[in-house]
Every structure is written in C-alpha cells, then in structure tokens.
Design goal:
By secondary structure, the chain is an alpha+beta fold. The protein contains twelve helices and 41 strands.
Length: 708
Amino acid sequence: MQKSLLLTAAVAALLPPLWAQDRRPTIFPPPIGWPRPIPLPAPLTELQLEHQNAKIEVRGPLARTHLRQTLRNPLPRALEGSYLFALPRGAAVSNFAMTMNGKRLEAEILEGDKAREIYQGIVQKMRDPAILEFLDRDLVRAKIFPVPAGGTVEIELDYAQTLSENRLTLPLRAPGASSASSAKANVEISFADADVRAIYSPSHSVETRRTGGKTLISGEWSSAERDFSLLWTRGGGKVSLQMLTYRGDEPDGTFLLLAAPDPAISATEIEAKDVVFVFDTSGSMEGAKIEQARRALRTLLGNLNPKDRFNIVTFASSVGSFRDGLTDATPANLEAARRFADGITAVGGTNISDALQSALKMTAQNGRAQQIVFMTDGQPTVGQTNPDAILREAKAANDARARLFVFGVGNDVNARLLDALAQENRGASDYVTPSEDIETKVGALYEKIAFPVVSDAKIDFGGLSVYDVYPPSLPDLFRGAQVTVFGRFRGDGKGKIALMGQSNRQTVRFDGAVSGVDANELPKLWATRKVGFLIDDARRANRPLAGEVRDEIIKLSQKYGIVTPLTVALITEDGSPRWAQPFPADGLGRTPMLRGGPAAPMMRGNGGTLAESGAAGVSVSRDLNALRQGRSETVADVKTIEGKTFSLQNGVWTDSDFDPKIAGAARVVKFASKEYFELLRDAKLAKWLSVGQRVIVVWKGQVLRVEA
C-alpha cells in the first residue's frame, strides 16, 4: 500500500500535505468543481519536501512562527490538487502564501468538527491512519495550481499562538526511506525574555547563544527523522532549579530536573580554581598532533581566571612539569607557560600512571575547585600498565576530590580506562578522532568548565519518592552550562526541591519548583539513560553483560523502543528478543541490530565484555555517552507515540504492553468502520491508532485489535 502523511505542526508547522506511516507529502485530487488535473495513477504521486525553515519568536506565553518550505514535483508532468496542513488549535494565522508562476494562493481555515470531518474522510478514502494524529487540530486548506514538471512551489505561513507551558514542538519527522526523509530542516528560536534559563531539547542537538537579553536556539539537520521538541525553564537568582514531571499510563511517573546558573553571573561570584594540565608528549604525538596539542594548551591557558592557579605536567617515559607546584595565573606566569608549551617535543613511551600521580599531588583540599585536564594518544606502556591498578591508585591519591577531565586522541587508546578515570573522579571524557582538530575539541569542552559556580552539588527531593535517578550523583555547575537529571517518582509528584552545594567556600542552597508537563518523550529518555548507566557500570568493572543486568536492558529496550547497539538487537520477526552475538576474538566485529537497523561495535570474546581499546573501544565509549545523555538510534520498525512503544511484528504494530497470553480476550475492530471512528473520539487512542491499519494496543485495561 502506498503510504502518505500530513506534515503538520504542534506549535508552528506548515508541513506538506498528509502524513502517513513514512511521512511523505502527498497531493490529493481537488474536490468537484475545481479544474481536474491530469489523471494520477494509483498510488498517488507525491511532492518531495526539499527544505523547511522555521523561525519562532517567544515572548512570555506567546509564540509567533514564520515557516517556509520548498516542495518539488519529481515527475515529467504537471501536478495539481488540494493542499492540506494542520495548525495548533486556536492559532491565529496572519499570513499564508503559496506563490508559483507569479500567482499567490488564498487559503481557508477550517476549525473543529469541519476539520475532523475532512480528516476522517481522508482516512476512509485513502486508508491513511497516520492522519488520525491530527484529529484535534484546526486545518488550513488551499488549492494548488499546477506544479510544473520538475518545478518547485514555495510555501510561507505566519501565525501566533499562546503556549500553556514552557514547551514547544515542531513536526519534522520523515522516518523510513522516503524522499522526505532527506529534507533539510533549519529551526531558529529566539526568546525575548531575559529570565529564560535552562533549555533542553529531548529530540535534537541544538546550539544555545545568549546575547544581551536575548536567548537564541538554532539547529540544522540533514534529515527529518523525528519531531523537534524544546523545553525551557525561567527563574532568577544565582541558580535556577525546576523539576518537570510527566505521568502517562504507567503507575509511576517520570521527571526531568533542570538546573542552570545565571549566565550573567559576575566574575566576583565565580569560584577560584586550581588546574593542572597534563599532556602526553610520547613519540606517537610527533607531527601534526603535537602542533595541535601546543595550540590547545595555549587555548586552555587563555581560559584561566585571574584568581586561578595552574601548572603544566608533560609525560612520555618520564614526567616533567612547568613549575614545581601550582602558580598564580598572572600575565607574566601565563606568558612563561606559553613559552614552555612552545618547547614541548614528542619522544618516548607513555607513562600514564606517574603522570596522574604527579598531578594529583599538586591538588589539595583548600576550598578552591580542583581540576585536572588530562590528554593522551596512547595506552600505558611505561611504569604501571595494568588499567585496573592505575584506576585504584588514582582514586586512592585523589584526597582533594579533584575533577578529572580526560581527552583521548586518536584510536590507539584504552577508552575503558580513560572513561573510568573520568567517571570515578567526577569529571568527563571525550575523544578526538584522527580527522578532528585537538585544539578545537579540547578548547570547546574546557570553555564549559572554566567558570565553576557550585561544587559538590546534591538535590534534596523533600517528600518526593524518587528512584532510578540518572546521573546518580550531580556534576559541578558551571556558568553557561546546565545539568539535566532524569528519574522516576511514585505518588502525585507534588512537593518542593532544593539544590545544595559549595560556592566560594560557603554552603549554599537554592529552592526549586515542581510542575507537570505534557512531554511524553520523558519516559523513553529516562529509560535510555538507565540503559547507558547499566552498560557503563558493567564496562568500568570489566564485567560481562549477563544475568539480571542483561535481562533489565532487554526489558527496557522492548518496552521503550530503545536501540542499544552495544547489547540488544531488540525484536526479531517472531516478536522474541534476540541477544546480540559476541565479537570475534579481535573485538572488531559488527552485528546488525534490527531488520534495517544500524550496526555497531559491541562485545569481544566469549565472556561478553565490551571492547575497551582501539577504534572499537572509542566507538563503544561514544555510544555509551550518547545513551547516558538520553540519545538513542531510531528504527523504522519501532515507533513511540504518546508514551507507548509499538514494534512491527508480522505486519502488525504491536503495543509493548501487550501480553500474548490474553490475546483471546481482544476486542476486534475493523479499520475505518463505524465502530473504529467511534473509538477515535478518544484523542489519545486516536494518536495510538495512527501508527497503522493493523494495530494491537492495550487501552483502558483491554486489548484492542484493529484489522485491515
């Protein structure tokens, strides 16, 4: 069956006509009375969405949107029809323009029951269930003049709407292999309010820039695989704290906690820090790497504050340093440090253990933030070379509770060791691939940790009953950055929260608010993080992924539709989980995850432990980091809608809550029947049924089976 889809906007989207399961814009025949187009063959021919650009301005509770799209006719003949798209209920349209061959088209706004009637008519005639997702929206309808063969049409729309909560969504999805899936998308959002603090997108990576009293959010993507979603918090004071709760159909709820220091906090309130920069100067760094490392070190020195102290440790077979101990970040000392960096040469082995011990001896419990920035391009070859022994010795020597930030350069590193060093010493790790510039990568991360505001941070959840919180312990808070925490809660999710920690040698406390939010993405994001931390914990301890941990990961993967490329191939044709096969002995194998899904490095040896070194180890580290941050792959055979996960099993979209043991008690409904449309009066059920024509869904304690 040809699939079609209405591309619509929850917040501000003018997207091409009708969405179906593969989200492709479609031209529909005009109603009686309009000039007939050249007859179209069955299935209907589709316009290709080439590009979409959305600019949104948010002022308090009001959002104004300008959307522009380019659609192309790929056929060698002209096309004409009716163009439909959905709007948020109550949106006030101020401008609509579809211009082609100098002609500007007019549109009509259809509200409520009239829009619903049109939507259901399309479902009946086109057998297109994906349009059910938009039954509770208003509708804009326009006649399309003939689009010439190979020609394009430009569409623009302006409208305003009131936001009931600090949340914005913009449909961009085009899953599967359709032409629309390769459409480029640009989103720009500006907040005119100076009190906007934490900003989090559960769907996409975005860039945040603050200029004066404005906050600018931007993103550009080469494909439209999922809807764009954005959450934000407001608040004054030194640190803004807010907990957003969501309760779907599960007994317990999910929360997202956002903490963000004031981006305009003054330099006098920034905590002074002691920093030791540790750089690998072994022979393998010779050439371009050592040149980039010198420039990176100069960049780091430039990010020091006047009240900071610092030192530079270099290591190869032996260890050297700029000064015997920490020195003040005065202009004269910084200039001397730059000359020291210019004289660094690459020669010798890799003595990671002694370098760490030397740096840790320079830290102290003196009320100042303690940081170590460690960079290496190799594995330990001199001194202590056992990774687990290096970890134990570093942890024992870190009496000052220094934060360790680690960079691995290239693929010849022990990623498990570097990740564990960072995590066990409350820092972070990252990797510079051979194609990346060391200076750019190292400088970008350090800009985020150069201005500490609160250290030793902890959350007081008050009377809230929370569990499975990730990350289990909070990182430090830095100016210009924010902290996100996911977890589960029991009860009504009401209460008060507070963040406590140390700032400028004083104990501080910041109270926060708890509020509900209609963000059904949160359970999947929480589950993704939990999987990441479960795998990471086993990897750091060098344990195989087996037993209860393995079972828990499979359970979470199935329930929430999470692709875990290190462990689980999700679901096979018969609906049963399939545990991924172990790597061959060299640890470089690749195993497909799902029919049509991605493949990634996974495990090595028959013990099922994760690859720890070389390119496979670096890849595992990056995949794990993505999971810990709540990012996972999307797969065409798995869809998450309104908190439910459906997988395509033998041609039927099956709810992950479905238990085959009670299949006999299912209520069977014929697709597009009168009974079917009666069920669509439930808005949430309508969205669940939008997944396809053949569906099994658990609804109000009953199994509902829709048959085509």
